[in-house]
Amino acid sequence: MVHDDNAVTRLAAAVSRMPTWAYRSMVRVMVECRASSFASFGTSRLMPSDDGKYVLWAAGSGVVSSSTSLRLLSASTLSAPVSSDTRKVPWDDARRIVVDAYSEFSDEAGAIVARFFDDNWIDGPVRPDKRTGAFCATTVPGVHPYVLMNYTGDRRSILTLAHELGHGLHGVLAQPLGLFNSSTPLTTAETASVFGEALTFELLLANEDDPRRRLDLLTGRIEDAIATTFRQIAMNRFEHAVHTERRDQGELSPERIGELWLEAQNALFADSVSTEGYMPWWSYIPHFTGTPGYVYAYAYGYLFSLAIYRRYLSEGETMVEPYLDLLRAGGSRSPEELAQLVGLDLTDPAIWASGIDALAEELDEAERLAGELGLG
Questions:
Q1: CA nearest neighbour of 26 among 225, 300, 230
Q2: Residue 53 has what DSSP assignment?
Q3: 112 with 324: CB under 8 angstroms?
Q4: Count of H helices and E strands in the chain?
Q5: Picking from 126-130, 202-206, 343-347, which range would have the lowest pLDDT averaged per residue?
Q6: Beta-carbon neighbour count of residue 36 at 10 Å?
Q7: Contact at 8 Å (CB) between 241 and 263?
């Protein structure tokens, strides 16, 4: 799948500079997605930033627990909904919200997203025997992307719709590049989806005046961010520990693997979550055995997109065309070159700090609302 004449040489050089199994595994995954020029700077610089901000997980979990009757969360309650709001948003209203969010950013983006609804490029209804989850299938040039999801009318469904349509927008804009250059590597595949989700979330938040519902929106957003950034980094730390110890000491027992899992999870949770009974939970994550190193790309891509969004909030319309150019470039350029299109330098750790700072601001607002509501 590698089509660049110099790709093999560059890849060999990149792998030789990477000291651990995790970096090598990441390059292998990148090759499978044609990101042959992925360099070690991204992994080496992002990890310390995430480690240093683990405190945000504990604070976020504190907001969640204070919004419920629980004073200490357990692993089994981590994914429990905080909100008691059972209102459902009809499909047509969700369409209006998402199209408006994209259109306020760019008329071109809004028109492309609207076409997914107008031309029935979305399979949204829940049906018996329909597969779960959501994804956007971008296949070959000449065939439009197609979104599958299960729309249930809650906040998460609206944001999932916006997320998948971001992938669809990316696919449409990059399609003229052809089969080998339009497909994006893992590190930038989530750029448009996370960006579109952020646009839609800000619109939802701006249109909500009720403090409790605003808090519900924010806690849901924080939960999603934690799962996509800090949790993925913790899982990558676990992978690193297991593979390194296996290489140094030989085969590991299930008990030892469980101990390493708890060490990584306790570093993440601190005293905000009880990990009692959590030791075997590593075994339900298929990425560890199927695609080692894969989980890292979630945090990388998410924070990269948030850094772009934060730059858009500060610079406004001057960022619109550069951002769309980034999407139009598909996978034809390296992540470094794509970042340069929007004025970012991937060798600068401040990029990752910027993405995390965006999450910290949302956490500050959630804590303020929780205090006002007497939930602190």
A1: 300
A2: T
A3: no
A4: 18, 5
A5: 343-347
A6: 21
A7: yes
Q: Residue 73: what are its φ and ψ, rounded to 5°?
A: -75, 150
pTM of the model: 0.79
DSSP track, 161-198: HHHHHHHHHHHHHHGGG-HHHHSPPHHHHTHHHHHHHH
Query: CA torsion sign, 22 to 238 to 287 to 191?
Result: negative
Q: Residue 274: which H helix or E strand, with range?
A: strand 273-274
Place of tokens 């809650």: 154
If one counts every other C-beta atom within 10 angstroms of the C-beta of residue 304, the result is 28
Which residue type does 240 have? H
CB 167 within 8 A of CB 137: no
pLDDT of residue 80: 66
| Res. 29: pLDDT tops 70 | no
Helix H segments across 175-295? Answer: 179-182, 186-189, 191-206, 211-228, 230-249, 254-269, 287-290
- Locate 77 and state its tokens: 């309650």
One-letter identity of residue 134: A
* Sequence letter at residue 22: A
Residue of 135, 317, 302, 147 whose CA lies nearest to 221: 302
Contacts 24+ apart (CB under 8 A), 170-174: 170/138, 170/327, 170/330, 171/136, 171/138, 171/144, 171/145, 172/112, 172/144, 172/145, 173/112, 173/324, 173/327, 173/328, 173/330, 174/327, 174/328, 174/329, 174/330, 174/331
Residues in the chain, total: 376
For 273, list phi and psi in degrees, rounded to 5.
-140, 135
Q: Tell me the C-alpha distance between 40 and 226, whole Å.
A: 24
